[in-house]
Amino acid sequence: MQLINQTVRRDWHLYLIGDAHKGSIYHHDDGFREAVSIIAEDRTSKAVFMGDGVDAKMSDNRHFRLDAVNPKCPTPLEQAKDLARTLKPIQRNLVTYLVGKHESDLHRFGDVVEEVCERLRIVQGTYSSIISFLGYNKKLQFKIYVEHGCKVMNSNAADPHDREKAKQKALKSQLRAQQFGDVAIMAKGHAHQLLIVEPTHELYLTTNGGEIKQNYVHNAYTQDYIHPDLRWYACTGCFYKKYGELGTSSYVETAGYSPTETGMIKFTIENGIPVAAEKVIL
Ligand SMILES: [Fe+2]
User: Fold this and answer.
1) Could you tell me the distance, in angstroms and rounded to a whole number, from the CA of residue 81 to the centre of ligand 1?
2) Which range marks the domain in which residue 186 is found?
């Protein structure tokens, strides 16, 4: 766990991006470079890298395939250098880089996250981190909980709407189980899916002076406890394609997983409050 403070303006954008898997032939290089350009050109942007920047895995890993390794950057160090080079244009926007599963699995051979963070001169994240966003007046705007994550969200429902709902429910449940109560946004990577769960502002009635009034539940995001239904939840996607060059099979294809949208999540913050979230599909 790492606790990080970041100063921000009143109106800004937060990008959650990760699971790039540099070094795999299934890495979506065009999409990843476009994502970096979008963040770089957005002068109000801050970004968090959600882990799995490199694909490097041990040859005894059940997902390892020699023909899936990009010959231009086959080793963890070369993949880390390539990642740092690609992220260089947004080094001022990046708040931190979280440890992902692939970086964590390499701990016996060195620290990929440390290598990239030192090259970019950014704060080194851990597997999960809490980031407090503060205004230039030092006042808290809101906090977020971010983790690389270790679980996926599955559904076998036949109806696409039901499938999406089931995955959203699982995402909220997994993140809520981390028990942090004072965060406005809870987000994870790892599952290679783009998902958003918006806050629910439920209707409630009050009586006043002989009248019945309608109201909606809401919370200030600076409070010690933010009701779980009033938080935002997100799964931050990936830049890993199920299908690459013809004549090869990725582990996603071998395992029979559904293809997923590639891209990142963008939050819009107005007057210090997250007001919208969208998938940036690339
Ligand atoms: Fe990943």
Assistant:
1) 18
2) 2-281
Q: Residues in the chain with pLDDT < 70?
A: none
Instruction: Convert the pLDDT of each residue in 236-259 to its tens digit.
Output: 999 999 998 899 999 999 999 999
Cα–Cα distance, 87 to 184 (Å, whole number): 27
Rounded to 5°, angle at Cα 135 from 149 and 5: 40
Ligand 1 center–CA 238 separation, angstroms: 7
Q: Residues for the chain: how many in total?
A: 282
- pLDDT, the chain, mean: 96
Q: Cα of 266 to ligand 1 centre, how many Å?
A: 19
C-alpha 134 – ligand 1 centre gap (Å): 30
Is pTM beyond 0.70? Reply is yes
Domain count, the chain: 1
Copy the structure tokens of residue 259.
């293809």
5/272 Cα distance (integer angstroms): 15
